[in-house]
Amino acid sequence: MNEIKHSARCMCGAVVLEATGPHQSGEYCHCKWCQQSSGSAFIPWVSFRKEQVRVLSGELSYYHSSPGCKRGYCRDCGSTMSFHTDEYFDLTLGIMDDPESFRASRHIWTKSRISHVKLVDDLPEFKESGP
């Protein structure tokens, strides 16, 4: 069976990732940790199960940002690349080679949303992590 493969890479190309199969979800995260790690108002994430993603080349560096979670980045160019839990390996939408293949289904952690960032879509909003 030929499963779809999604490739992703950091800005300098030192770290290349591959996700196999359908993603589990897509979401815009407005938490303070995502704001700080990206330098932006929010991060669009594409969620895969941990076993669906592998590092093809290079090596992710990690920062343990909160209990049970770590964030992956490229130590060479600093690209924010991933978010890890025991179950999930989330990838930032911006590192995907074909970001148009993914759509978000919700906004999470909107209690930390920057007030002048206006949400103009009709996606559900969750003050915390959501369902």
Describe, in short, the structure shown:
It contains one helix and ten strands, in the order E-E-E-H-E-E-E-E-E-E-E.
Q: How does this structure look, described?
A:
The chain is mostly beta strands. It has a single domain (5-112), classed as Beta Complex (Metal Binding Protein, Guanine Nucleotide Exchange Factor, Chain A). The protein has one helix spanning 32-38, and strands at residues 5-9, 16-20, 25-29, 43-49, 53-57, 60-66, 69-74, 80-84, 88-92, 106-108. The longest helix is centred in the N-terminal third of the chain and has 7 residues, at 32-38.
Q: Enumerate how many helices there are, as a single number.
A: 1
In total, how many domains does the architecture comprise? 1
Query: H/E order of the elements?
Result: EEEHEEEEEEE
Level-1 CATH class name: Mainly Beta
Total E-strand runs:
10
| Biggest sheet record | 7 strands, mixed
What name is given to the CATH topology?
A: Metal Binding Protein, Guanine Nucleotide Exchange Factor, Chain A
Which strand-content bin applies to the residues?
A: 35-45%
- The largest beta-sheet arranges its strands as 6-7-8-9-4-3-10
pLDDT averaged over residues: 94
- Parts with pLDDT < 50 across at least 5 consecutive residues: none
From the coordinates shown, what is the CATH architecture? Answer: Beta Complex
Beginning-to-end CA distance, first to last residue: 32 Å
Mass-distribution shape: globular
